[in-house]
Design a protein that fits this description.
2 copies of one chain form a homodimer. Chain A is α/β, with parallel strands linked by helices. Chain A is about 40% helix and about 15% strand. Chain A is built from 13 helices and 11 strands. In chain A, the strands form 2 sheets. A 7-stranded parallel β-sheet of chain A has the order 2-11-10-6-3-4-5, with helices on both faces. In chain A, strands 7-8-9 form a 3-stranded antiparallel β-sheet. In chain A, strand 3, helix 6 and strand 4 form a beta-alpha-beta unit. In chain A, helix 1 crosses helix 2. Chain A is globular. The termini of chain A are far apart. The interface between A and B is large, with 40 and 41 residues. Chains A, B: Belongs to the SorC transcriptional regulatory family.
Chain lengths: ~325, ~325
DNA sequence: TCAGGTCGCGAACAATTACTCATCAACCCG
DNA sequence: CGGGTTGATGAGTAATTGTTCGCGACCTGA
């Protein structure tokens, strides 16, 4: 995206203004039209643009009692230090729009901490959507580090890459990992890992105080496959070995134990590990991810979970 | 329909859920009613309750959102009918390039009105820069009138004169004021004012529907001095009398009250006054003008303000 | 027990918002 | 230069939302 010079006579600034007047000031679109000196139709279009461009963020400042019970139960059952359950929007509906704002609030809570933290982020649709929901803030004291490489097979930065987006929002020092998500070979991985700058980023990521990750399923619709990081053959091979899910490219089985596959010997990023004083929070929801989530919880691969109501209920069933 | 959890939801829980479904999932209140197993009216009441109980927080994530907040605050604090804050370009940078396009848009909005308006303009760098940003348009229905005389001491038309420029751009009937900005004496002023054609222009300017003016500071770098309308001695004398700023040549103190100086008895143009149905909009920004602006706002010399972000923040501090 | 008050409900209606459609101008692109 | 495409616009209309009103349930104190 090209950012325009700031003096510009407003491209979607009008949309922002309209959205502000509509949602914050509570004006009717008719009044907004008068305010902006335009037609009612245009005002309506501006308002709806403000939504579709994700300029408007909505948060729920109330913990629904049903969700609270699920959170407590999840924490108990899976030994979680943090459990957050967003109200579901309905069966069969993508839970991301519900999870993302909830997760964003949680990340912001971490960022508001006064003492400096190292915060690591994975990649994926969930995280990307979450970051889009975050507010801008000034967090010079923290460090934001990427868990995975952020260069895809064709050399382009992945669309779902999160680190730059988040760093942009919170204006904190950030450490991308300048290498592929998955190396061609173990040797190539070692080559990357032997580079000085990479080593310090790896160290930072490994020792991060808080880590936020998405979860990938290893069924036929695996994100790793969809995004072109592995081939259909590789996927089938790992399914045969019992692959149940994947975190930051690291594949694990239905007990939540990491597999000894050729892929895992080529993943360039760091493996998520929980430890005392260190949080690893999974952000995921939806039926396709149920198996992967359940396996990861069973193996205690993370000690935090942000999901939605229906997923939570299914996990507990 | 989803089966409800076994615990009874508190009244607020339902409101929260309804609000979530409405704003996040984007369901209609009808769908929410079905989802919750209730009537449409109840769904509507739950949604509005979620707002009135402040369970739902709406925010705007856009770089101008801060400006909108400042506008609302300025309007509230200083009783303005119009407040516009342009995003600043940075500390220490001339804010004019940011203010001018914003102000130009505002002026154009007035000009687009179908019913005939009388629009008065002051002079100065800010207005001049603003006019340069305006697009051409056909506005035969309006009248454009100058607030001040537009002949400087040496007989030349002032470079910062605005009226001809604007009239040229919008092709509207225009009324310059054929006399000096500041007369040699009160008598000379009265002489000019007694002329028939001058009187009608004065009347037009005094009763203008909308007036746009710049603000001049009265510190040592006063525009009045720089442009040779007053001498350094005169400036010092007025500073001693508490001069804080000046609008169209009329000097006022830090409470926004016009001074009874010899200069004010010689200013040839009309004094800006707000009135019901009449707007007086100040276009100004930058550190040097802060004192003058604050004073003018305090004295309610104008009921509209177009400025930049940094200035707005300083005015509110 | 009963008058009086409050509250939530649904019906009906008014206000507001969203969508569809036809038009038009700008913009490519050969 | 002409044809096709895109994108913005206002008119008109359908859908949705907000409000008012009367009703009945329920509480409460005399």
């Amino acid at each position: 995206m090209i950012d325009r010079p700031e003096t510009e006579p407003t491209p979607l600034d009008d949309a922002a203004r309209a959205g502000w007047l509509y949602y914050v000031a509570g004006l009717t679109q008719d009044q907004i039209a008068r305010e902006l000196g335009t037609s009612r139709q245009r005002a309506q279009r501006l308002v709806s643009r403000a939504i579709s461009e994700r300029l408007i963020h909505v948060r729920l400042e109330h913990r629904v009692s049903g969700c609270l019970r699920l959170e407590a139960e999840l924490a108990r059952r899976f030994g979680l230090k943090l459990a957050r359950v967003a109200p579901s929007l309905g069966v069969g509906v993508d839970p991301l729009p519900s999870i993302a704002p909830t997760a964003a609030a949680e990340i912001e809570r971490v960022l508001r901490a006064a003492e400096p933290q190292v915060i690591a982020f994975g990649t994926g649709r969930s995280l990307r959507a979450t970051v889009e929901e975050m507010t801008s803030m000034e967090c010079e004291q923290h460090k934001i580090v990427s868990l995975n490489g952020n260069i895809s097979a064709d050399g382009s930065a992945s669309y779902y890459d999160v680190i730059f987006r988040i760093a942009d929002r919170v204006r904190a020092p950030h450490y991308p990992m300048p290498m592929p998500v998955i190396a061609q070979s173990t040797e190539e991985r070692e080559l990357f890992h032997s580079l000085k700058p990479v080593q310090s980023v790896l160290r930072l990521a490994r020792d991060a105080d808080v880590t936020f990750v998405g979860i990938g399923q290893m069924s036929d619709d695996a994100p790793l496959l969809k995004d072109g990081f592995i081939t259909a053959d590789e996927l089938r091979a790992m399914q045969a070995l019992g692959a149940a899910g994947e975190v930051a490219g690291w594949v694990y089985d239905s007990d939540g134990h990491y597999l000894e596959t050729s892929l895992n010997q080529r993943v360039a990023g760091v493996r998520v590990e929980v430890g005392e004083g260190r949080m690893a929070v999974a952000i995921a929801g939806g039926t396709p991810k149920l198996v992967a989530l359940a396996a990861g919880l069973k193996g205690r691969l993370f000690n935090g979970l942000i999901t939605d109501e229906l997923t939570a209920r299914a996990l507990l069933a």
